[in-house]
Fold this protein.
Amino acid sequence: MFKAIVSASTLRDALDSVSVLVDECKIRLNEDELAIRAVDPANVGMVDLTLEAAAFESYEADGGVIGVNLNRLEDIAGMANSGDLVQLELDEETRKLHIQIDGLSYTLALIDPDSIRQEPDIPDLDLPAEIVVEGAQIGRGITAADMVSDHIRLRVDEAEEAFFIEAEGDTDDVDLRLDREDLIDLQAGPAESLFSLDYLKDMNKAIPKDAEVRVELGEEFPVKLHYEFGEGMGQVTYMLAPRIQSD
Amino acid sequence: MTDWTETYRPSSLSELRGNDKAVKGVREWADTWDDHREALVLHGSPGVGKTSAAHALAADKGWETVELNASDQRTADVIERYAGRAANNATLGGSAGGDDTGGRQLVILDEADNIHGNYDRGGKSAVTSLVKSAGQPVILIANEYYEMSRGLRNATQDIEFRDVGARSIVPVLRDICRKEGIEFDADALERIAERNAGDLRGAVNDLQAVADGKDHLMLEDVVTGDRDRSMGVFPFLDLVLKESTSAQEALQSSYEVDETPDDLTTWIEDNMLKVYDTEEAVRAYDHLADADVWLGRVWASQNYSYWRYAGDNLSAGVAAARDGTKGGWTRWGRPQFYHSTSDTSDEVVRAIAERGGFSMDTARRAVLPYLQAMTHHCKPRALTVEMAAAYEFEAEHVSFVTGSGETTNKVESIVEDAEDLRAERMEEHSGGAFAGVALSAETGEHGDAGSDDAGDSEDGQTSLADPDGSAESGESAGDAGHDAVRDADPDAAEDDDGQSGLSDFM
């Protein structure tokens, strides 16, 4: 059983953050929250999303799992104006999801959850550095890095107490330095890893510019990016494996 | 009903039947991957265990796998997005220290010889750059090793999987029957194994088809029709050009060949004269010309139903042009332009055209012949180096132009020198840009001398002394003139030791 009403913008934010990594995903309809966890086909990027029941206008669920085609669902959600409410109802007989937006009604065929790539376990990581920064700052670093290279180095300098976003191209370099005062919070530690911009660029699209992004970083370890949406009642964690250093 | 070929797919390399040597090679490749970091090509007939070997290897090593096969569209973009990302990043689980594989995962590109030019746009070159830059082990799987481009073959190691002998197939079938609880006549299994000559997967599929749901498998159950097999090009040529007694027989055989009419036309055309006498050839050429007209219509209209008329002409038409049958054995040759030189030649011509700023046609007809004459067998060497540097040629290109063997030391050293030369030029050039007026005036003067010299000598030179002002070509001109005035100007800012100019050789 699943029946919920949610604002279109919250739904869109949630879907966008997942669709940057995968085309299909499983949605867990837990009693107190909606949860999505997915890993991209290349096994490099992962997203873990929860949207609390309180983020919905109304929410009833009893722990089922459905598989959806995210592109379709996004398209439908795109039909709504941002203030509109979207009503979702699962028809367990036909295994279809009924979606209603201001008189528009859409029946979405679901995908067998077993046919979707398995949900990953979240590796338990102890990452030494933690940076809390505005989404816009990260976006700036990524956009600049993208001009010169296809990978990016995230680094914390313990001595200088600064967070660096660096990219080295064939001919040109880009370097964004964020000192403690530019950051919301910094817990310095030995941290430096290289990542693919392909992924970060996509993730960056989903991160709201005004969100506080908590970055956990290690040495040649995956990076974790946490942020909230939907007035703090939705949480997203991205995790991205480091790029292999080849020289 | 699950597919037995999946159910009984080996989960470890040690379970793989047949091809012991190849399996050993695969294991060695994986064990030494850290040292060589090269991609591996597994090639061989269908159903002999190539894909199974790749997956079994990953299971043995505890690597995760990312697989891309022919059911996915494989454009450059897709390959970049899936295989490319997987090949350049650590895995989430591994890099987090969750296991001891260090974030390694195996990228498997199945049917790598079947990346189609149009449907998988840009796929071929994406694969080549993938294997060259990959930070993860990559296995390419192919039926026809030589269908893959030379660039790809050179950048990879290869292991051939041979057909699995009937003697190795029977025990596999026996095991499966035991596990499925089916009694069997030994003859029946042998029959299946023989019929599938070398194709283990085919044998397992056949076994499932006849045995599923039965308690006891007897020889009678197995006696069914043989499956269709495609005809090779050589038997087809034998039939059309020598043996067929009717046009219809030749036509029928053309349906069984797994080649497009374009390719068949070139095969026939290139081989026909080996057996046809003059009068037969005249008639046969008429039909080949008609076939070609139809191929042209296919090309122009993209209406592939015209292929059948090309097929009629190239098989029935050519066969009908022959008087009687012919005996003996003929060595059929691969059509000349077929794969052998065309890629390299196109690359060479494209480089010349780009650098010179003229069409590929001009580059091919008005420039390339001169280059070939001037640098025949890499003599004079300095000029060849100069050319390789100017066009950024690789060894294969230099070999194509000069006619020297590609892997010879001579060609390799020329390519190396050309690279050094380019690097030197790059430095020199930026130096000149920052050093100010005096220097640029000087190079300008040299540039004049160079283009005069070159312009006087021959047309082919225009490419090197090209006046379009691009950095390298301007540079070439400058250097060409440089030597001519070196004696008079020993204090020239640049030091061009080892650098000879074009004018020395004219």
